[in-house]
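Throughout this chapter, every protein is written as a compact record of paired, labelled lines. An example of such a record is reproduced below:
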Amino acid sequence: MQTVMSKRALTLLLLCAILALPTLAQGRKNVRINEVMVQQDSTGGNGWIEFYNSSYSTNAVEKMFITTLSRDEVSSHIKAVTDTSKMKPNKVLIEWCKERPMDIYEIPRGDERNTKIAPRTHFVMEADGDIKAGTFHLPFTLKPGQDNYVALYDVNGDLVDDVTIPASLQPGETYAVKAEGSLPTVLDDNIPVDSIWTVKDGKTLETAITKGNFNIREVNENIEAFHVKDPHGFWIALLAMSVVFSALALLYICFKLFGKFASRNLQAENKQQASAPVATPAAAVTAPSGDLDGEKMAAICFALYQHLNAHDNESGVLTLTPREGTAWSIKPGLMRELPVIKK
């Protein structure tokens, strides 16, 4: 029975883990490109790329990929390799990082303290071409005076976000997402770029540039979209109730299946025990009939008497015999006697 309970607990744990995987994968989709600087001033200076965690939960960005390779080039390479070797897309990108280390970068594993991005916060990757400087340094640089493409891929090889920085961007300017709600929740090539992105020159408060703390979108895009499509909240209430009752129905089905599985195993064990051969008890040994003669009876009784009365009866009185002296009264008796040496 304990084995059956262990199997049920393990199955339930695996089921919960499988159901939680889509939630974890969806969290990384909320990490978006927020602002890009190609050149800091007219004399030079490395560019940087700012990312933003738009969700309300902490996201670990380790093992995500950042690249300047085009979307078509990455997708065609992944398709070509997976068709021939059956390799998973994330493994393809990992191998590509070794083959083309200057074009694609995997955010290092193991730096969990720095790669866990808090809700509604930013992190900046320096495009200085020096990955030896740390986790947040990219192996490539952005080229001024030409279009620069930057893409962010998830750990499973899915495209999360990308942007093309125009060649017209001047030194000291950034290409940034417009404030509050302009970033789409999903990638859509049909949305005009001008409605999402704008150029910041830092000359006014509205166009200020503050690396790592800019364009904080306090408005939740999902909530605003629901407010427009469902102003009275009927659909969101129906959706919430459907999720709750669906979860309860799923739990009922799971426990029902576990109960049937356990009862079936219990019945099988009972049948196995019932079909096992039962050992017949040994026949009781019957005492021989007939009476013993008088001499044997007398010998047995005498032996029992001797065994039960082996000692004399004691009076229970202690007799003390006085001595002439004790160790306290005879002091020489306390001294150690030395052996007598005969000459």
Observations:
- The mean pLDDT is 80.
- The chain is about 35% helix and 15% strand.
- The first helix runs from residue 2 to 28.
